[in-house]
Amino acid sequence: MNINEFSPYIRVAMLSTLTAPFKINTRVIFDYEIILVTDGKCKITVDNTEYLCKKNDVVFLRPGIHHKFECVDNVNFVQPHIHFDMIYSNISEKRAVSFKPKEAMSDDELALIQEDVFKDMCIPYVFIPSDMANFRKLFFEIIEIFEKKKHNYELLYKAKMLELFNCILTQFDHSRMIETDITSNPIIAVKNYIDNNYMSVMTLDSLSNQFYFNKYTLLRKFKSMYGKNIISYYRDKRIQYAKNILKTTNIPISALFEKLNFSDIYSFSRFFKTYVGCSPTDYRKNHFVNQNISSSDSVTSRENVSHLPINSG
Fold it and tell me: How does the average pLDDT of the chain come out, rounded?
């Protein structure tokens, strides 16, 4: 990969929704496609591996790789996306968006499949950016620039595309990272991911796959940097969130276990008691700090549970 050759050429950049029920049959594309999932969900199979893609996932499809899309739970899939070449060539403007599998392509069509310049890099097909706010900002700026096509828009979108891929390379190109560089260290990216997504279910294996780390290396490096086992860190974030909700709101415990994505209230109660030493109900009785919350306030609090601060203690 020679990053000095990068000169992105965009052929499609648009806001898009796949309306349920939908299905895109197995195909390969000539170029790259990057999707930022903004709502709904979809099962995407890439190179014989299935991914359940949901809000905030990024899907990175490479040239020549079989993939397909399938509707899940009859919900729409909101998927603003960009089709592009990473290196402009004399056939870039001849390429279109393909919906065929390789076996159905002519020799001329097969010749349009570009070389994958990222083939030696472990960029996952599906991932969540470590700096989601910046990634999302750049992504929608690119779409806006492409759609409005103002003077010299090609130069503007190329610059933004290079910024976008700097985010991706910073997150996944471990060979270029300096261990002490706080802006690019992948362990920091893992911690930031946990901090922003701890209400979701995570395992060591899922984190290892998400960030392309050997799980034992991930355990060792995380503990070395933060002084705590990575699973303990994730668990403590969930416990602290639950304790804060129990202390400061009347939100039903049934709503809390759902918010933290436990399978049922019994699993949540068992988890809480194991690590706190008492049941969620008893913890609320002994630590509730605002006895003046009304039942109507409880409903409002339930609706805004995700916006409550995470305090210590």
Answer: 85
